[in-house]
């Protein structure tokens, strides 16, 4: 691959499952060395896009190339230089951490004399060396995720696909994994990351593509996305009870301002005159008999930009916050 | 080189499967204990004819050892997502399936070799080793491929094992393992000719006793045809899952 050639080049990719248009003519390119985020709600086509790029699904239309290899013809050549961490940690339960890494090294043709040193170094890097002889099935979710990432790095790829790397992890494990991902990028690895955690995309990504219902609606840097909402006023209210069932009633009172539910008790309101919004919301609170716990004006975040760009309904955003959602 | 990648992948998948699935009590019990128990039952009934039962015993060992785990491993790995892990490596879907088939083949070879050696030594038999190999090797590939085909044909892990019992037991009764095919009614004789185990048993009888109802090369050729008939649709079905 020449220096000028992008690590990933996608042009008009389409994937249909029967009547469902899962990925709808998406085009983007990822520069070598950057962390590129694919951000979208569940079911927006993130995982389907990755599956097409790594050869686990065939696109119906469009073209793509990875590290200069055109797909699908060049997929096996491209696989030598790319690592993939799927949305589920899919190593072998019956094998130990070390044996799982050695098996991956064998599959990727790592020279025999380098297999064990590389595997042991990765186990040290990921803090798993002391547990190297334990079976994968005995690991916690966070350790499984870390070992799955280590397995994707055993052949020293130049491009790493990470599909929802921190989903299902507790806060400490997610933080530690993000630090690892950041460290990999510092070593020059190109990373393609899908997530529905906005703060994760904000922390890690150089650029972000926002995907909604299979289409890319915006590509920008996190800072660029946040600038889209910096001129707007934002106010946030936390109620003492669930007001999600009353969302329509609330929206009808807000006029041109838009409300987004961060959870069933918490709403963020975009646009409009803040003083007027405060009056409206306090009146709404009195009318429905549910008190207000907290109210504040806030600085716009990537989440606010995402809501504006994606045009998601408050209900969708509230659903995104709930755990146990399916693949994107 | 690409073909070296494919061969390396096939080999390592087979070895990994041997470690994770085959050399475990369930596979060993299906692969060895079941044919031995079956043969022992016939031996107790008629101890003097045990040597005659050896080709049938080996044929059953080939069938049950190769299909023991083969019928479920692919589906099992599809469910766990580990098959996708294999497909992310720089090898093709065909090589992944051939790796799985080779795993069943190697386990079958291991168990069949033990049973064959024990039978030959215990009964002081003098088979034609080349003939035995010419029949046993393609037979192991045929039944491992058959297991793979059943595995990719169904969605649930238990379905493949249950479904596979039908041809397995049908073959044990119809293919000359315990009763000569010539003693069967005409219709069943015709059905026996359509089943691969018939050619395994015939070939093994020729190897052990230098007589049979066919020529060794005919049985060998028939087994090659069955191998292709099982392998090609299995590869095609696996490809279809990742379209």
UniProtKB/TrEMBL annotation, chain A:
Domain ABC transporter: start-end pairs: 8-238
One Pfam family per UniProt: ABC_tran
InterPro entries in UniProt: AAA+_ATPase, ABC_transporter-like_ATP-bd, ABC_transporter_ATP-binding, P-loop_NTPase
Molecular function GO labels: ATP binding; ATP hydrolysis activity
Signal peptide (UniProt feature, chain positions): none
Keywords: ATP-binding, Nucleotide-binding, Transport
PANTHER family: ABC TRANSPORTER ATP-BINDING PROTEIN
Full protein name: Abc transporter, atp-binding protein
Species in which this protein is naturally found: hydrocarbon metagenome
């Amino acid at each position: 691959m020449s220096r000028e050639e992008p690590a990933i080049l996608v042009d008009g990719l389409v994937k249909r499952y029967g009547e469902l248009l899962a990925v709808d003519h998406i085009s983007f390119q990822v520069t070598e060395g950057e962390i590129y985020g694919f951000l979208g709600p569940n079911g927006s086509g993130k995982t389907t896009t990755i599956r097409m790029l790594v050869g686990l699904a065939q696109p119906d239309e469009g073209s793509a190339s990875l590290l200069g290899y055109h797909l699908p013809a060049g997929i096996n050549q491209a696989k030598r230089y790319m690592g993939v961490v799927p949305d589920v940690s899919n190593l072998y339960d019956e094998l130990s951490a070390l044996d799982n890494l050695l098996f991956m090294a064998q599959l990727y043709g790592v020279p025999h004399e380098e297999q064990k040193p590389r595997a042991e170094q990765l186990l040290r890097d990921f803090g798993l060396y002391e547990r190297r002889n334990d079976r994968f099935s005995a690991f916690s979710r966070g350790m499984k995720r870390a070992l799955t990432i280590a397995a994707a790095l055993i052949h020293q790829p130049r491009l790493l696909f990470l599909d929802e790397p921190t989903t299902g992890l507790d806060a400490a494990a997610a933080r530690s994994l993000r630090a690892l991902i950041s460290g990999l990028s510092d070593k020059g690895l190109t990373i393609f990351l899908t997530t529905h955690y906005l703060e994760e995309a904000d922390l890690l990504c150089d650029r972000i593509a926002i995907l909604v219902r299979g289409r890319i609606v915006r590509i920008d840097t996190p800072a660029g996305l946040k600038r889209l909402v910096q001129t707007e006023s934002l106010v946030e209210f936390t109620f003492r009870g669930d007001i999600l069932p009353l969302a329509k009633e609330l929206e009808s009172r807000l006029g041109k301002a838009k409300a987004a539910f961060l959870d069933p008790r918490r709403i963020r309101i975009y646009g409009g005159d803040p003083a007027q919004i405060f009056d409206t919301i306090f009146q709404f609170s009195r009318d429905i008999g549910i008190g207000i716990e907290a109210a504040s004006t806030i600085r716009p975040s990537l989440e606010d930009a995402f809501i504006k760009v994606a045009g998601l309904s408050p209900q969708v955003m509230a659903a995104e916050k709930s755990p146990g959602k399916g693949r994107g | 080189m690409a073909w070296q990648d494919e061969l390396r992948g096939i080999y390592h998948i087979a070895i990994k499967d041997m470690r994770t699935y085959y050399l475990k009590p369930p596979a060993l019990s299906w692969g060895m204990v079941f044919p031995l128990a079956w043969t022992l039952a016939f031996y107790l009934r008629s101890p003097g004819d045990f040597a005659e039962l050896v080709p049938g015993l080996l044929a059953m060992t080939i069938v049950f050892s190769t299909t023991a785990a083969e019928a479920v491993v692919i589906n099992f790995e599809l469910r766990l997502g580990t098959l996708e892990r294999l497909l992310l490596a720089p090898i093709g879907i065909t090589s992944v399936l051939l790796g799985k088939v080779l795993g069943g083949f190697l386990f079958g070879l291991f168990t069949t070799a033990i049973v064959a050696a024990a039978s030959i030594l215990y009964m002081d038999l003098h088979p034609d080793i080349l003939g035995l190999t010419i029949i046993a090797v393609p037979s192991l590939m045929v039944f491992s491929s058959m297991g793979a085909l059943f595995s990719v044909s169904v969605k649930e892990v238990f379905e493949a094992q249950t479904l596979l019992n039908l041809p397995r037991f049908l073959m044990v009764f119809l293919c000359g393992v315990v009763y000569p095919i010539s003693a069967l009614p005409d219709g069943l004789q015709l059905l026996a000719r359509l089943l691969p185990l018939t050619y395994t048993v015939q070939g093994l009888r020729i190897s052990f006793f230098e007589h049979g109802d066919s020529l060794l090369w005919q049985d060998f050729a028939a087994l090659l045809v069955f191998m292709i008939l099982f392998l090609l649709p299995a590869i095609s079905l696996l490809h279809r899952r990742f379209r």
